[in-house]
Amino acid sequence: MSDAGADVAALYRTVRTIRRFEETVEELTAANEIPGTVHLYIGEEAVASGVCAALDDADFVTSTHRGHGHVIAKGAALGPMLAELMGRVNGLNKGRGGSMHVADLSLGVLGANGIVAGGIPFALGATWAAGQEGEHRVAAAFFGDGGLAQGLLHECMNWAALWKLPVIFVCEDNGYAVSLPASASAAGSPVGRARSYGMAAEEVDGMDAEAVYAAARAAASRARSGDGPTYLHMKTYRFRGHHLGEAVLKLAYRTTEEIESWRQRDPLTILAGRLGEAVVAGIDADVEAELKEALEFARGGALPDPATAADYTYASGMRPREGI
Amino acid sequence: MARTRYIEALARALRDEMLADDKVMVLGEDVRQSLRRITHGLAAEFGDDRVIDTPLAEQAATGFATGAAMRGWRPVLEFQVPSLLYVAFDQVVNQAAKLSIMTGGQAKVPVTYMFPGSGARIGLAGQHSDHPYAILAQAGVKTVVPATPSDAYALLRTAIRDEDPVAVFAPAALLGNREDLLDEVPEVPLGSGRIHREGTDVTLVAVGHLVPIALAAVNDLAAAGISAELFDPRTIYPFDWDLLRASVAKTGRLVVADDTGRTCGLAAEIVATIAEEMPLRSLPKRVTRADSAIPFAPTLELALTPGKEAITSAVKGVVEEAVAA
Fold first, then answer.
1. What pLDDT, on a 0 to 100 scale, did the predictor assign at position B295?
2. Contact B66/A122, CB-based, under 8 Å?
């Protein structure tokens, strides 16, 4: 990371990696190689890619149910990520977390979270603690437009602003909280709300990773120099349903025309247009090779032994009381 | 050795842990002024950075503690009112307590939740009289309810040193109780119960503030020729089943006194476990709080919460039933 402009090729590589990872996940879920359901990040890749490019390795991220992109952009290895989604012991969480909780704490990912806004306060405590140790770590706390209706988000924005904590509140406004339009979820102006707490806030084109990077870079710089939190409102869109089960439910909350209009602004094509064809082709080939390797790694992992089902319940090693 | 009130024992334990480990910090509402007196003097001694007043945002404060804990700190979070647990419930049972397993052992969350003034204490009414420890046990959260100043001291230190979230409930009715505290209080591990009085006719389980009340009942019963053994679990989860089994194996009878709700409650769990595992000489009995909010007027509060008369009567009933049989 430099103070110069964004490294477009690097951003493209991250966006492309997330896209192809998610497409692979979609296939594996359809083929029942991934249990449960998944919330795909396809369409929103520019946000995680741009934000995490502005963070240092030791900075923190709190993620969401739609978290694969955040974890990949923070640097997680694809093989252990995919293995986690497939419930294998060689997964990042040893098959105990799955899609909604996939995390790599060594990369500052403080958990992906199945409760909307549930992970945001971790960003406050972790950055505060690091600050006490003399390390000025920044945290990017991701949430969706649905999160704007959660009280906990506002507890955290209020607190972070009071203490000038180095937190970037990243709202990924993909237009819908599951099926509820953002207009029916958040009153007034989200950016205006953030400003009323006294924090810097702006709306950002969440389909353009370069624009995201520029905004996140400025926010991280403010955070590191002690100027406190920033709220970034990313206008983005998910090209798939809320989760993969949605196709079966035949929900009709958005039109084909709307989806198509957003596809015209695909974050992948936007960045590809700024790079030469040869560069794009080279990166694409790298990503395919990496994914192939990741899939082999994941498929090669063992399924967890049922005798270990309650392992890790307690960090102390205590066993929970058995139920059978 | 020093004559020490329960609340002072907690304060001493917290201070001793803060002296022993500079990653121990305390946060909560009004902890710098110390409304609850456990943190009295700590702000002056340890500074602003380790004694923190939070905004009135219990969910955020609980998550803040989780985040600091994942960074290697040992936060002690004081809930000024025990029923504020309900406000922060997701952050305790669905976040902090699950992070270890959800991350496959990557995350450790060594947070202590302190609940001083738990339970009813005449006139606190509907929203300040709950004793919400049993619901944490059902969620598998490590939970202690010390009944004496010595146990309060020892178990708070154990809780702070533990690698997982631990909830420490300090019953309102006990905070002023005094005991001679040793200069070096012996450690008490989690999951270690205590027999306060040995007996042969019946095992009487009592939790928290019901322990001294049950002890008074046991004395009365002795005068009536009934020898009751008083068992105090001290830790609700993990529970010292082995010690309880040994006691009931000896007495063959069981009464459980627990000031939380009856349905799916701690007393229900204790009775069910023993009933599954060993024959009893008479039907067991529970003495619990009603499944109800506590009404304000003192006569009404007393009518819904367990006291000495109810405990004495239950023990007599259990012993006499066996005699009749």
1. 94
2. yes
**What is the total count of domains within chain A?**
1
Task: Tell me if A125 and B59 make a contact (CB, 8 A cut-off).
Answer: no
Asked if residue A323 belongs to a domain, the reply is no
Task: For residue range A27-71, list pLDDT tens digits in order.
Answer: 999 999 999 989 999 999 999 999 999 999 999 999 999 999 999
SS3 B303: helix
Q: Same structural domain for residues B46 and B147?
A: yes
CB-closest option in B67, B103, B237 to A101: B103
Tell me which amino acid residue B219 is. N
Q: What is the DSSP string of A133-178?
A: TT----EEEEEEGGGGG-HHHHHHHHHHHHHT--EEEEEEE-SEET
| Residue B128 annotated to the active site | yes
Q: Is residue A316 part of a domain?
A: no
Residues in chain B closer than 8 A to A124 (CB atoms) = 60, 63-64, 67
E strands, A199-303, are: 200-205, 230-235
Indicate if B31 and B174 belong to the same structural domain: yes
Q: Do B101 and A118 touch (CB under 8 A)?
A: no
Question: Is B187 domain-assigned?
Answer: no
Q: Give the CATH number for residue A294.
A: 3.40.50.970
* Residue of chain A whose alpha carbon sits nearest to that of B159: A316
- CA gap B244, A97 in Å, rounded: 36
Q: d(Cα B321, Cα B325) in Å, to the nearest integer?
A: 6
Is beta strand B51-53 parallel, antiparallel or unpaired with respect to B194-197? unpaired
Across the interface, whether the CB atoms of A129 and B67 are under 8 A apart is answered yes
Inter-chain contacts counted by CB atoms under 8 A, chains A and B: 148
Residues of A in contact with B69 (CB under 8 A): 125
**CATH assignment of the domain containing B229:** 3.40.50.920
- Are residue B166 and residue B222 in the same domain, yes or no? no
The Cα of B325 is separated from the nearest Cα of chain A by a number of Å equal to: 34
Per residue in A144-156, is it b (16+ CB within 10 Å) or e — as a string? bbbbbbbebbbbb
Instruction: Write phi, then psi, for B35 (nearest 5 degrees).
Output: -60, -35
CA distance B246 to chain A (A): 19
Q: Is residue A317 in some structural domain?
A: no
Q: Write out the residue range of the structural domain in which residue B89 sits.
A: 2-181
Chain A residues with CB inside 8 Å of B55's CB? 155, 158-159, 162
Residues B84 and B141 in one domain: yes
Give pLDDT < 50 ranges for chain B.
325
